[in-house]
Amino acid sequence: MELRRFAFIALIIVVMFGTIVAIGSSRTSPGILIVSMLATTIAVATPLTLGALSGLYCERAGVVNIGIEGMMLASAFFGWFAAIYMNTILKMPPLLSLWLGVLAAIVTGGLMGLLHAVLSVTFKVDQIIGGTVINLLAVGISGFFNRQLFFEKGSIFGGQVPHAPGTLPAFHVPILADIPVVGRIFEQQPIAISAILLVFFTHYVLFYTRWGLRTRAVGEHPRAADTVGINVARMRYANVIIGGLMAGLAGAYFTLESVPSFEPGMTNGRGFISLAAMIFGNWSPFGAWSAALVFGAAQALQINLQFFRELIPPQWAFLQQASIVGLVPYLLTMLILTGIIGRTTPPAADGVPYEK
Amino acid sequence: MMTQTDKSGNQVVLEAKGITKRFPGVLANDRVDFDLRQGEIHVLLGENGAGKSTLMNVLYGLYHSDEGQFFRNGQPISIDNPKDAIAQGIGMVHQHFMLIPVFTVTENIMLGEEEMKNAVLDRKGVAKKVRDLSHQYGLDIDPDALVIDIPVGVQQRVEIVKTLYRHADILILDEPTAVLTPQEVDDLFRIMRGLTTKGVSIVFITHKLKEVLAIADRITVMRAGQVVGTVTPAETDEHQLAAMMVGREVILTVDKPPAEPGEDILQIEDLHVADQRGLEVVKGVSFTVKAGEILGIAGVQGNGQTELVEAITGLRPVKLGRVLLNGQEVSGKPPRPIIEAGMSHIPEDRQRHGLVMSYPVADNLILCTYYIAPFAKGLVMNEPAVEENAYRLVKQFDVRTPSPFVTASKLSGGNQQKVIVARELSRPVKLLVANQPTRGLDVGSIEYIHSQIVAIRDQGAAVLLVSAELDEIMALSDRIAVMYRGEIVEIVQAGSVTKAELGLMMAGSHIH
Amino acid sequence: MESNEQPKKGTISIIVDIFKRSAGAMLVPVLAVFTAMLVGALVIWGAGGNPIAAYIGLFEGAFGTARALSETTVWATPYIFAGLAVALAFKGGLFNIGAEGQLALGAVAAAWIGYALPDVLGVQIPGFIHLFLVVVGGLLAGALWGAIPGWLKAKTGGHEVINTIMMNYIALNMVSFLLNGVMKDPNPLNVIARTPLIASGARIPAIIEGYRFHWGFILALVVAFFIWWLLWKTTLGFEIRTAGANPDAAKYAGINVARTIVLTMAISGTLAGMAGVIEVTALNYRHELGFSQGYGFDAIAIALLGKTHPLGVVLAAILFGAMRNGATRMQFMTQIPVDVIQVIQALILLFVAADAIIRYIYRIRTSEERMVLTRGWGG
Questions:
Q1: Is residue A346 part of a domain?
Q2: Scanning B44, B464, C206, C326, which has its CA 20 to 30 A from the CA of B111?
Q3: What is the DSSP-derived secondary structure letter of residue A185?
Q4: Which of residues 14-73 of C touch A (CB under 8 A)?
Q5: Which of the residues B59, B100, B109, B110 would you substitute to probe the A interface, choosing the one with the greatest number of A C-beta atoms within 10 Å?
Q6: Residues B312-352: pLDDT tens digits?
Q7: What confidence tens digit (pLDDT) does each residue in B216-274 have?
């Protein structure tokens, strides 16, 4: 990673963590504060990391995906619905219901990915428009079914929001989670942990396997790939669907790991911020992850500030406003896109339909 | 069927019979027959658009033929995609290289035929094989280099090794000499000869008839999608080949009175320009173009010509140095004031810079002058004037179009270029910058555009001509500047040097 | 005139020609709407509703009575402005997903000038001057919110798609902050995040007493005509379209592409802002949080359904307005949630964007130039 980008990431982390230490140290020791911030940062970076990986698979194969937001939203809804359905109607145990919910979310994401592939590979629709279609469709479908299934009188749940089976329990990473103080970082919920594993896995796939070499070839110069017998359409289909699966897992985070409920529009732009993380990370898994952590830190700050609300000194009163601190990720995204923190290069054929 | 041999006793390794390929509105291949013998170099000669590349792309499985059949060693084969072609031992080096710039040489070569070791790509193992192949055939390449960092000539060798790595014994080379200096062409020919002695049979596609006689065992000429005939070098000469290609006698030289140079119009002083990556690709260039003369810039593509032209025309920032047009400094200015000072520009890439493909011809004809009278009155466009201009220029410059209101995308390449020439020459011209003005055009359009360039010179304009076609440079220029690695090697009077000497200069050697 | 090839045509044949051409151009959008309604019917049926009853309710609610018609125009008005905003940006090769934020800021600025400016200045402002200030203030806010991503695109290459989306979230956060704080209606009975009413002098009066049909709709039609004129009859329009169709050729031809991008986005933002201004001055006389939710994305569907042509945008906006308006009656009559409209609208966008699907289903052979709207991330 170039120096400028590394310095920027370090700076943001220091500012975010420093603010919390400065405000909260009168009540809690800095060490515990930093560990807690770090643990929260990793957790809230989960959907961003997975969203960025979703974009990564698609764009490394040459398909721009701005539909991550919609893929996440639809997956969040159907994952949640499936979990409740299993638990309430089919009387399955809560934990099993949750895991089947995760599966349903992943499948939903995969189907959305398939739709995106059909639009952009087969029908060669402008890929940004295709992504917008997915975003709109997700808002419509999740909103419609949310009301139809849960709030209408004749619906399966009888017009009442049924009790949700809770959230996925945290997982203690053996040994590491038992370290005093720092161990807290290694006590994460399963989707957060799998996000990190998927970062490593994606790096391996992209740069050390046949699949990765071909994927990147298709994203850089599809005709060259075609002339050595690689089926460009098939590679793009597969990668966009894999991207959809990633976004689906990210969607599961919202309703099955973070909070046990669904709100219309609850992804709140996280899909788009994921894209920014992917760009800032220069289309590489570890780069994307570190950018996701930057955004995670900003959000962790917002969460922790709420916690220390009454300790905020009066001259910093604006920090009490969630809607002001909440601007930080959006402003960061715009700053990153200016490229002043380091230029990035997209895959050469990104966004270009392949015409034989 | 028995393995086929022909009269001379050489085995026919590949045969095409009755290949027909239609594109919407075009019959690209019309019942084409073609055969290739073991160990020969078979030249496929024809103008741009004659159907040579189409035929080979059909053979390579990139297009599907509408009719016809291929035979390999006498057996009928069907090739639906490049994979089938590769399996049949056919390798193709495309006109635009099929290499991925950000991959290493090894990665490019193994792509599609990857080898794994311990669940990761075996880059080391393949690199060793590449090294062995390159020694065996005398094709010097570095397996670990990034393609983006190696020169075009080496990239071409990578492409050849790529086919050998796949055990190809039929090699198709599509216009391989377009990017090479005459000396590099000689090297390539030597490599090709070497390959044929090792049993490789080669199809060599070209439209340059001068190099054909030097290398071919047999020559098949195509015109307008059909095979005109197959001859051997012994029984033909340049003039006969040219006539076969074009269908009529071709004047191989441009009729041009001697230049009458006037005052200095374009002065370039110690110009430095950087490319997209920030690397300096024009390094201290100085020259002058006078009114009434054509200065040709010769050089292999990618030696800074593009950036030089872009800097002169205001499309690219100048790092250092000065550009003076009519004595006024224009370096660092955007295109509009330079255009208004009398610069006309036929750009290198007509579809990217020269035209808005989705616009009607009429709008393309006012692309640079839409805002001034008579095409605009204040802020409002004057449609009758735009139409009148379109009808007039289409007629005057012989643009073949059903109407001035069809989009530029519907026109043939030659007519698209005529639209640009019409637009650029229909306003008062002090300086014409023409970059690759005839690339990819048919002979008729080339002759027409050459005559227009000479005509504008005779009207007193200064002309800066940039071309990778040495023949074009030699036919049109009054003086020739040779560019190599961002510098002007030498500026000579046209007619005072031979083609071979120019070729040496294009490789960086000084003659005088 | 001397040139004899030039075809001379009578007025009537020209009109027939235009009709033929627009009928051809409208074929795919009309079929797209039809197909989306069909799929929508399946969704309704699948969710246990009666699609025929639902669509009858939808139609009655949209056009059944004078009041329904009036309400349809009320819904269509901001759609026309926002749709024009997106369509104009598309013409300039830019994808403005930020109409939502531009609209909201335009409304907030207009509302503030409308209720607070006289007090801040401490003077009485004559009605028409006040109205003028309200309108100009709102438009400037929208223009600014559009111009920022335009400027970022021109100067840094930051892609306007993500930047306009980010500007949406920033605008919504800011508006929420303001409407819950300093700009909140101080009326002790008020619990909603909304501004006070604007001064009566700064309001545009109703056209017909008792109906909400307002001058904004008429203005929207006028503006649509103006945008058509701007795009196809002026040198600025030529520059916008050229920079959009081929920025490299535009630069080659001497057009200042960076300036054109900023200008296009500013005009686009102005149009979106105007949607907000009209809601404040002619309809609600205040701005309320959440009022503008979803306009930005609907505007994209409208612009594409209208094939980015101002006339098409007007027709598409009326269709969308009618759907939104009729949906309430549909829900009342058949218990189908209004949200189904959003599904249908998304499907319309899907079929318009992937017109190859429509062409395939209905075996339409007409070859048309593919609309090139946006490019990848680029530089």
A1: no
A2: B44
A3: G
A4: 43, 47-48
A5: B100
A6: 999 999 999 999 999 999 998 999 999 999 999 999 999 99
A7: 999 999 998 999 999 999 999 888 888 898 877 665 567 788 888 999 999 999 999 99
- Tracing tokens 């289409």 back to the chain, one arrives at B394
Residue A180 sits at the chain B interface (C-beta within 8 Å): no
Q: Does A346 touch chain B (CB under 8 A)?
A: no
Q: Which residues of C touch B345 (CB under 8 A)?
A: 252
Report DSSP letters for A303-325, one per residue: HHHHHTGGGS-GGGGGGG-HHHH
Q: Which pLDDT does position B252 carry in this prediction? A: 58
pLDDT band at B2; cut points 50, 70, 90: very low
Token pair 């359009």 is at which residue?
B445
Interface membership of C343 toward A (CB under 8 Å): yes
Asked if B355 reaches chain C (Cβ–Cβ under 8 Å), the answer is yes
Least CB–CB distance from C242: residue in B334, B339, B356: B356
Contact B312, B344 (CB under 8 A): no
Asked whether the beta carbons of B463 and B457 are under 8 A apart, the reply is yes
Give the closest of B63, B100, B112 to A229, CB-based.
B112
Instruction: List the structure tokens of A352.
Output: 């270009």
Q: Which residue has the tokens 């051809």?
A: C24
Residue B506 and residue C82: Cα distance in Å, rounded? 58
> Which candidate from B334, B367, B388 shows the least CB-CB separation from C249?
B367
Domain that holds residue A145: 3-337
Options 1.10.286, 1.10.730, 1.10.3470, 1.20.950; CATH for C66-335 is 1.10.3470
Chain C: closest CA distance from residue B503 (Å): 32
Q: Could you tell me which of C85, C104, C123, C52 has the C-alpha nearest to residue C306? A: C85
Residue A355 lies in a domain: no
User: Are the Cβ atoms of B339 and C254 closer than 8 angstroms?
Assistant: yes
How distant is the alpha carbon of residue C66 from its chain centre?
A: 24
Report how many domains make up chain A. Answer: 1
Determine contact: B167 vs chain A, CB below 8 A: no
Burial C284-307 (b: 16+ CB within 10 A, else e): bbbbbbebbebbbbbbbbbbbbbb
Interface of A with C in 136-155 (CB under 8 A): 136-137, 139-141, 143-148, 151-154
The set of residues, in sequence order, having a beta carbon less than 8 Å from that of C360 and lying 6+ positions away, is none
Locate the domains of chain C by residue range: 28-49+337-368, 66-335
Residues 49-68 of chain A whose Cβ lies under 8 A from any Cβ of chain C? 64, 66
Q: Which domains does chain B have, with CATH numbers?
A: 12-246 (3.40.50.300), 251-342+428-512 (3.40.50.300), 356-426 (no CATH)
At A21, which CATH number?
A: 1.10.3470
Which token pair is C329? Answer: 């009656």
Return d(Cα B160, Cα C70) in angstroms, integer: 72
Query: Quick one: what percent of chain C has pLDDT higher than 90?
Result: 61
Separation in Å, CA of A180 to nearest CA in chain B: 38
Q: Which chains touch A (3 or more CB pairs under 8 A)?
A: B, C
Mean pLDDT on B19-48: 91
pLDDT higher than 80, residue C162: yes
Average pLDDT score over residue span B368-375: 94
Q: Residue A348: inside a domain, yes or no?
A: no
Residue pair B171/B201 in contact by the 8 Å Cβ criterion: yes
Measured between beta carbons, the chain A residues lying within 8 angstroms of C169 are 268-269, 327, 330
Given a cut of 80, whether residue C23 has pLDDT beyond it is no
Measured between alpha carbons, how far is residue C157 from residues C14, C149, C307 in Å?
43, 10, 26
**Residues A145-183: pLDDT tens digits?**
888 888 776 677 766 777 788 899 999 888 888 888 888
Give whole-number Cα distances, B96 to B156, B176, B182, B210, in Å.
10, 9, 19, 22
